[in-house]
Structures are given as structure tokens and as C-alpha cells.
């Protein structure tokens, strides 16, 4: 595929302010909101997101690590929120790297399935889940580039970093 067909951007800022078709939420398995990015998205997006998450929980019982589900974007500039559950880092002994890659792949596939051409990702699992930031950046960028090499349905990916450390790590990967 011609790499000029898609664009990867890096932004330092607040993912709840990003105008893309979908933003990705680093959710927990309950989908009921939490701290960090998850809490910020639920607060900024309003009660519609939580209501949509409740319906998913009733239907399928939450979301497993590495999987992803999609809801409305509520009051956010994004039309959709793709909720994915990143792995908790346990020294790398429990397939955390593949589970993190699955978060990106499954989120991108949901975006394609829902006709989203632009998608923004936070730094999944690097906060309270303690995934090493450098490894997480490498996995995120590689997984996204690999996925984009197989489809022309996604036009733009935005990596949104909340802090300078993640921004610099992603910048070095890109």
C-alpha cells in the first residue's frame, strides 16, 4: 500500500478535545469509567457513554483485556468512543505485549467496521497499569503501521500524549 494514503500525527494534549471520527478509551474490564483517560472521557462525554457501556455489559458482560467495544461519543467532538482494555504490566510474563497489540488491532478493526476514517489513541496501559512507556510506544506504533499497511479505510491516526515523556517516546518511534 502507498504510505502517503494515510497520515500518523502526534499531539500533546487532551484526547477529549480531539476531533476525529473515533477516540480510543483506555478502559477497564467493567466499562463503568475509572481514573485517568477513562474517567476524563466519561466526564467530558456525559451520561450517554456510560448508558451505552451499561447496555454492552448487560449484553456481553464487560470487555476482556485486549478486546474493544464501541459506543457513542456523547458530548465529545468525536462521533464514537472505542473502549479497549489494556493489560496490567506484570513483568512481561503474561503475554502483555501481545495483549497490548491486540488493543490497537481490535480498536482499528472496530473503526473500520464502523466507517471511521480518523481515530485518536491515548497511551494505553502506561498509567496506573504500569506498562513500560518505551515498550508501549514501540508496540503502538508498529501495530498501527502494520494495520495501516493492510487497509486504505483509515486515513488518519492521531497518537495523543498527555505528558512530555510519552510524547518524546512516540516521537522517536515515528
Describe the structure in your own words:
- The protein is α/β, with parallel strands linked by helices.
- The chain has one domain (3-173): Leucine Aminopeptidase, subunit E, domain 1 (3-Layer(aba) Sandwich).
- It has five helices and six strands.
- It has helices at 36-45, 47-60, 96-113, 133-148, 164-173, and strands at 7-12, 22-27, 68-72, 80-85, 118-121, 156-161.
- The chain has a six-stranded mixed beta sheet, sandwiched between helices.
- Helix 4 links the parallel strand 5 (118-121) and strand 6.
- Helix 3 packs parallel to helix 4 and helix 4 crosses helix 5.
- The model has no long low-confidence stretch (mean pLDDT 95).
Quick summary:
This protein is an alpha/beta fold. It has helices at residues 36-45, 47-60, 96-113, 133-148, 164-173, and strands at 7-12, 22-27, 68-72, 80-85, 118-121, 156-161. It has a single domain, classed as 3-Layer(aba) Sandwich (Leucine Aminopeptidase, subunit E, domain 1), CATH 3.40.220.10.
Q: Main traits of this protein?
A:
Leucine Aminopeptidase, subunit E, domain 1, 6-stranded mixed sheet, alpha/beta, 174 residues
CATH topology descriptor: Leucine Aminopeptidase, subunit E, domain 1
pLDDT under 50 segments (min length 5)?
none
The description of the largest β-sheet is: 6 strands, mixed
The number of domains is: 1
- What order do the strands of the largest sheet run in, or round the barrel if closed? 1-6-5-2-4-3
Specify the helix fraction band.
25-40%
At CATH's second level, what is the architecture? Answer: 3-Layer(aba) Sandwich
**How large is the count of helical segments?**
5
- The CATH homologous superfamily is termed Leucine Aminopeptidase, subunit E, domain 1
Q: What characteristic shape results from the CA principal axes?
A: globular
Structural class: alpha/beta
Amino acid at each position: 500500500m502507498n504510505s502517503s494514503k494515510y497520515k500518523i500525527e502526534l499531539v500533546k494534549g487532551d484526547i477529549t478535545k480531539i476531533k476525529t471520527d473515533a477516540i480510543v478509551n483506555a478502559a477497564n474490564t467493567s466499562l463503568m469509567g475509572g481514573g485517568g483517560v477513562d474517567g476524563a472521557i466519561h466526564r467530558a462525554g456525559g451520561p450517554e457513554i456510560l448508558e451505552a457501556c451499561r447496555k454492552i455489559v448487560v449484553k456481553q458482560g464487560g470487555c476482556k483485556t485486549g478486546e474493544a467495544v464501541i459506543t457513542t461519543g456523547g458530548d465529545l467532538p468525536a462521533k464514537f468512543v472505542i473502549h479497549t482494555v489494556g493489560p496490567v504490566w506484570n513483568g512481561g510474563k503474561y503475554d502483555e505485549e501481545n495483549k497490548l497489540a491486540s488493543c490497537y488491532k481490535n480498536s482499528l478493526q472496530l473503526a473500520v467496521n464502523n466507517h471511521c476514517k480518523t481515530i485518536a489513541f491515548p497511551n494505553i496501559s502506561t498509567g496506573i497499569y504500569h506498562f513500560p512507556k518505551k515498550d508501549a510506544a514501540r508496540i503502538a506504533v508498529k501495530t498501527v503501521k502494520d494495520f495501516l499497511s493492510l487497509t486504505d479505510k483509515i486515513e488518519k491516526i492521531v497518537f495523543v500524549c498527555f505528558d512530555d515523556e510519552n510524547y518524546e517516546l512516540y516521537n522517536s518511534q515515528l
